[in-house]
Write a structure and sequence with these properties.
Blueprint lengths: L3 E3 L4 E7 L5 H15 L16 H33 L30 H32 L6 H124 L1 H18 L4 E5 L7 H23 L1
Antiparallel strand pairs: 1-2, 2-3
């Protein structure tokens, strides 16, 4: 610190100087600070971040695959649930023997004589035989009687022949009706028997078919629900397996994180070693600057007076350089941290 004052024809200056014991340290501080200011700040080129290790990448890949598989299982389970909710039991079959059983009419047509040509021919032959017998017996006897009586060709003979013809016609009619009636009854009886047999067969088939259908439907239903239960069980097993795989991969990921943290600590230690090494000159400069600043700050200075003003004192330079050294050291420390 300096001050000036007026006197008789001159001026005087008072200067605060370093003590002689501090001057070598101030020169050393100035020299080291100048040297460090001309050097580039060291840059760390080593690895500072620990990347993912194979354990972690394996866990991530496994978790990704397990998640994709579980999503597929979930989609399949949702589809299965929708199917079960809307299923209408398509395992049932139809029964062709159920319902009303109609009597067979297969033999009904044979009860109609018009549909039996053999019947008409048989009746015609029988009627012809009856006519021939009439002509050979009753007709011949009648003619002989009236011829012997001398009344052949008379009205009495005509009346007798007409009466006999009527009787013959009635016999033919009765014979024809009886034959057709017998044929009808026989055909109707056969048709009834056929219908009864057809009904019995249809009823038996109905009973057998119903039993077979019930057995088939029961087995089909059992198979269907067993299949659905197996599908649900498989889906549940797949879900549990996916959850188990996810848990294992999660544990693998945690182990990988532990290894990564260890690697990161090792990298941090290597960086700290490098930092301590390159920071040594700055730390030494800071120690020297702090020591000198502390000594000067305690008032350990020497005052002197001269008639000429100085451009700068060694004490002032030392104080400024000490502050500069502290600032440089603090700046480097902050950069390293």
């Amino acid at each position: 610190m300096s001050s000036g004052g007026g006197g008789s024809g001159g001026t005087s200056t008072t200067t605060q100087e370093l003590p002689s014991w501090a001057q070598p340290y101030a020169q050393q501080l100035l020299s080291q600070g100048a040297s460090l200011s001309q050097q580039p700040i060291p840059q760390y080129t080593g690895q500072t971040v620990a990347g993912l290790n194979p354990t972690q990448t394996g866990a991530i890949s496994g978790l990704t695959g397990a998640a994709g598989t579980q999503a597929g299982v979930q989609s399949q389970a949702a589809g299965q649930a929708a199917y079960l909710g809307g299923n209408q039991a398509g395992y049932g079959i139809t029964n062709p023997y159920t319902g009303n059983v109609a009597a067979s009419q297969a033999a009904a047509s044979y009860a109609n004589p018009a549909n039996n040509p053999a019947l008409g021919q048989s009746v015609s032959q029988a009627n012809q035989q009856l006519t021939n017998a009439f002509n050979q017996t009753t007709g011949a006897s009648n003619e002989a009687q009236f011829r012997n009586a001398g009344a052949f060709g008379g009205s009495a003979q005509n009346q007798a022949q007409n009466l006999q013809q009527q009787q013959l016609g009635q016999q033919i009619q009765q014979q024809t009706s009886g034959a057709y009636n017998n044929a009808y009854n026989t055909a109707a009886q056969v048709a009834a028997q056929n219908a009864q047999q057809a009904n019995s067969v249809a009823l038996a088939n109905q009973y057998t078919g119903t039993g077979a259908n019930e057995a088939y439907n029961s087995q089909a239903s059992s198979n269907y629900y067993n299949q659905q239960a197996a599908i649900q069980q498989a889906l549940g097993g797949a879900t549990n397996a996916g959850a188990g795989a996810g848990s294992l991969y999660g544990q693998q990921g945690a182990a990988g994180t532990t290894a990564q943290n260890t690697s990161q600590n090792q990298l941090n230690a290597l960086y700290q070693q490098w930092f301590n090494q390159v920071n040594q000159p700055y730390a030494q400069l800071g120690v020297l600057s702090s020591s000198l600043s502390g000594a000067l700050g305690s008032g350990a200075g020497v005052s002197s007076t001269s008639s000429t003003a100085g451009s700068g004192s060694l004490a002032g330079n030392a104080l400024g350089l000490g502050a500069l050294g502290l600032g440089a050291a603090n700046l480097y420390n902050n950069w390293g941290s």
